[in-house]
Request: fold
Amino acid sequence: MKNQAGRIERSDYLDAVQDALQKYVPEEKGRMQSGLFQAMRYSLLAGGKRIRPILVLEFCGLCGGNQESALPFACAIEMIHTYSLIHDDLPCMDDDGMRRGRPSSHVVFGEAQALLAGDSLLTLAFETMLSPESVQGAGAARAARAAGVLAKAAGPYGMAGGQAIDLLCEGKPVSMETLQRMDECKTGALIRAAAQMGCILAGADDQRLSAADRYAASVGFAFQIEDDLLDVEGDSTAIGKPAGSDAENSKSTYVSILGAERAKRAVDELTKTAVQALDPFGEDADYLKDLAERLACRNR
Amino acid sequence: MKNQAGRIERSDYLDAVQDALQKYVPEEKGRMQSGLFQAMRYSLLAGGKRIRPILVLEFCGLCGGNQESALPFACAIEMIHTYSLIHDDLPCMDDDGMRRGRPSSHVVFGEAQALLAGDSLLTLAFETMLSPESVQGAGAARAARAAGVLAKAAGPYGMAGGQAIDLLCEGKPVSMETLQRMDECKTGALIRAAAQMGCILAGADDQRLSAADRYAASVGFAFQIEDDLLDVEGDSTAIGKPAGSDAENSKSTYVSILGAERAKRAVDELTKTAVQALDPFGEDADYLKDLAERLACRNR
Reply:
């Protein structure tokens, strides 16, 4: 990644993404719909780990691509992630009043505006990737392919489909297979899309593209299991329940199905698989190895 | 439009769109999220005038483009129109229990599934336009540009922004200027996008592109005023209220602001402007002239 055109330093990833998001979703104070932009910015600029945009930028860089040209795509996937959180929190869905330590969008702006803010972020993601500037920067073929990958990952065969499976399973104990299928759609698809988009934007060959996909699939799955482990630890610490009892509802988790020990072993195995998948990228992939390991060890 | 590659006969437009929509949104009975696809199909395949897809196909044909290759784009704009109707009917928005003579999506499938069906149709629109097949058919540069135009028209600067302006004005009397601004975003933007997309997909020059845009802008505005006229006639016939009293709420309409006579004259003027805009297309444009006139005279 030396002397690469349009390079962004790893230490600048978060700032670069935040600055670009600010640019793509301005305040628009002069417009009648400025309240809509305010609602979009409230959720989008609130922080978060920005894992998806970082994967886009890092894989793009690893494959020798222009990371500046990948920024609109990195921001687009964060917009889509944020829209899903806003709609997910709505009263008709999870009815969650808090998000990232602040009141949810619909609590602050009302249900109608939150609905529109989600719709707008989803649409603006495509507007951002397909603007004349973005298309010129990335090249039309790569831009169309990357945006297409993201659309598929976010739609009824991906994230939105996972939400529908979740609705179906609500409050019912489910099998390991069902839980995995749901998470592959609900969260896995978008993380895999991020890695793929980075490679596509850099014009990477199929070998690197599928290696990146394997990495992201393993990391995404490990992340999900680790989330369940963290929930249990949180619960047992906070309320004194035995780990894994999950008494609040009968929702199945990886921990309730596998038990905490097997779940931890699964995270370790998946992380190993993720790291091995990085072989084609050589030493340059150390950053992604560290990322996989940090995501896997959040509570240990 | 003779001997043109990928030509679709005008009399086949509706069937071609319906068949393609069926293909792009299959039943997916084998998938866990088949209920989501059912909800998407319920609203999408329910009919409607299909004005937007017809504009895509007709302008594409007029400009010598391949209409078969434009079908995914024609279907995408109908998906986006349908998503907007589903979300618009939700309890937190207009809370409308009926749509096109049938119960609304959320009445049949519940609020959560209706929300997801809307989200999914919006996302699938981009998946459909940006699939490898669609991009190959249209060419990457044209596909990316057409999809970008649609994204902008549907997002916070277009349709979704218009919804936000509508929220802001709810129950308040507004000026002619505000009402027009709202409708330009809420409905005008998507109709203009349809005409532009058809031209872009055919590789039309800027003169034809801006002529198509002027036509669509005038037709869209006329359509909106005519809608208000129809509402008033409907009200006065059905409930015996004097035309224009609109006693149910204090929402401003073109009729309440202009009066019925001036509103009718505005429709006629706009239709004339629309027809004049078609000059660069010559005699081939008779179909679009008829369309403008039919849309303008729905109640006369």
